[in-house]
Amino acid sequence: MPKMADQRTHLVLENYIGGKFVPCSRHIDSYDPSTGEVYCKVPDSDKEEIEEAVKAAKEAFPAWSSKSPAERSQILNKLADLIDAHLDEFAQAESRDQGKTVTFARTVDIPRSAYNFRFFGSSILHHTTECSQMDHMGCLNYTIRSPVGVAGLISPWNLPLYLLTWKIAPAIAVGNTAVAKPSEMTSVTAWMMCKLLDEAGVPPGVVNIVFGTGPRAGAALVSHPEVPLISFTGSTATAQRITEGSAPYCKKLSFELGGKNPAIIFQDANLQECIPNTVRSSFLNQGEVCLCTSRIFVERSIYSDFLQKFVEAAQKWKTGVPTDSSVNNGALISKEHLEKVRGYVKLAQAEGGKVLCGEGVTSLDLPERNKSGYFMLPTVITDVSDESRCMQEEIFGPVTCVVPFDSEEEVIRRANNVKYGLSAVVWSRDVGRIHRVAKKLQAGTVWTNCWLIRDLNLPFGGMKCSGIGREGAKDSYDFFTEVKTVTIKH
Ligand code: NAD
Fold first, then answer.
1. Which of 167, 203, 294, 357 could be disulfide-bonded to 153 (CB atoms 3.0-4.6 Å)?
2. Is the CB of residue 313 less than 8 Å from the CB of residue 16?
3. What is the DSSP letter of 214?
4. Cα torsion for 33, 37, 42, 44, to the nearest 10°?
5. Residue 178's beta-bridge partner residues?
6. Helix, strand, coil in percent for the chain, rounding step 5
7. How far apart are CA 127 and CA 312, in angstroms?
8. Over 70: is that where the pLDDT of 433 sits?
9. Is 244 a catalytic residue?
10. How far is CA 379 from CA 106, 352, 359, in A?
């Protein structure tokens, strides 16, 4: 495993193409969000590097796609074991690169990255295809599935290795080879994983990682004629660019995008469970999870009580230095992002909203060395209209809005009144109501009386501007393969 650079020197990353580390002559500065200092240089790759990577992936495809699922499964499992064996190094690196707490990286990001390989290494062993009989025609129809070729995989900065491996694992499990581009802001753990690929038995060219920005490396991957499939997680605006860039080639596209997720809290909710869970769903990972709650609708009869208890609990959600195991939140990803998130709080105030805790209300005491870090306290806003930008746009930070509602029908309409449709949470003890509301909410996932519990076997994705397609065991299998119907007359 590579050693992290000394605090005063920069860590310099290299692309991983055809099983080799390839230096790049141009670099992008990458910052430690907890100090605001540059600590890493990320390759600023362009068309040439993407071209090399696609070439290597194409060359590796025939042999890799011919392996049995069991052989590929064994390699994926070995890679999972190696990631687990380096848990601490990965967790420290992810925290330093992204700003999240080491605890979160150690308990969520990295274990899930290993599990992605283990999960798809197992699920690939259990797929079957369809068959139908047409006896009256003397025909038997069946489907076969084949890997698509070179998969283009593009991931964001909030859950860096977790979301990158969520794409690499299913893509290669079914026999594709891959060219992946992680976010330029969080590239370190992807680079560290490259060091493990050879030891795991991943043949050269099966996984290629090209680092760089979206407009250069990302756009070159999207518009490469020999990359027939793009799996993308990121913002809705970028998805629109990817749609345009890939349109001339009619590529297969899977998009996991932003959200403006509601939590609906009925008067019969178990508040003892609901309040800590809603604090967690609003602020986990600095609010930088696409599934985070950012609009809380509370039935009017319990509104004041809820608000008081919720604000008290939010104030206990501790923000501080990411290596401190007693804190819940670390730093936001970048200065620009921090300013954008703060801007929404100012906007809410300008529109008549009240800030009950956090930004501008409570101050944060940080050690000297972290004073230029991108920290922000959990912020609760109320008295905002449904049409305000804070209630309509994805903020993607530790900010949540709380508003009252009067009836079930009304709250469903208001919860659906955004362009997004990623996830929703419903808190109630009335089973009939839970079914009714879950059915009517426009969201790819509805959690009731819980949040963020995921069975990877089931589809994951968003409606409306939150995505196109679904991923998960069967859905990923479908997306990362081409299906063909064969008809035989006997
Ligand atoms: P982003 O769209 O800015 O960037 C995501 C990735 O796309 C990065 O690797 C970036 O370099 C690349 N990219 C940017 N422009 C590109 C272009 N023109 N062509 C090709 N690639 C390009 O998103 P972000 O700011 O990194 O991530 C935050 C967003 O991701 C939020 O909207 C969040 O909700 C969303 N997200 C969604 C999910 C989900 O599962 N639905 C999960 C995590 C994050």
1. 167
2. no
3. I
4. 100
5. 151, 207
6. 45, 25, 35
7. 49
8. yes
9. no
10. 25, 16, 6
Residue-wise burial string across 140-173, b where 16 or more C-beta atoms lie within 10 A, e elsewhere: eeeeebebbbbbbbbbbbbbbbbbbbbbbbbbbb
Coil, strand or helix: which one is 146? strand
**Can you give the pTM of this predicted structure?**
0.97
Sheet (strand 423-427) strand order: 354-357, 379-382, 399-405, 293-299, 261-265, 423-427, 445-448
As a residue count, the chain comes to 490
Ligand 1 atom at minimum distance from 238 CA: 2
Contact of 67 with 175, CB cutoff 8 Å: yes
Q: How far apart are alpha carbons 312 and 357 in whole angstroms? A: 9
Do the strands 467-468 and 420-421 form a parallel or antiparallel pair, or are they unpaired?
unpaired
Catalytic residue among 184, 256, 394, 471: 256
Q: What is the pLDDT of residues 325-374, one digit of tens each?
A: 999 999 999 999 999 999 999 999 999 999 999 999 999 999 999 999 99
Give me 347's structure tokens: 């906007």
DSSP 8-state class, residue 216: I
Q: Which of 490, 484, 406, 487 is nearest to 147 (CA)?
A: 484
Contact by Cβ (8 Å): 426, 437: yes
For ligand 1, residues with CB inside 6 Å are: 154-158, 163, 181, 183-184, 213-215, 218-219, 222, 233-235, 238, 241-242, 256-259, 290, 394, 396, 422, 462, 467
Query: What 3-state class would DSSP assign to 131?
Result: strand
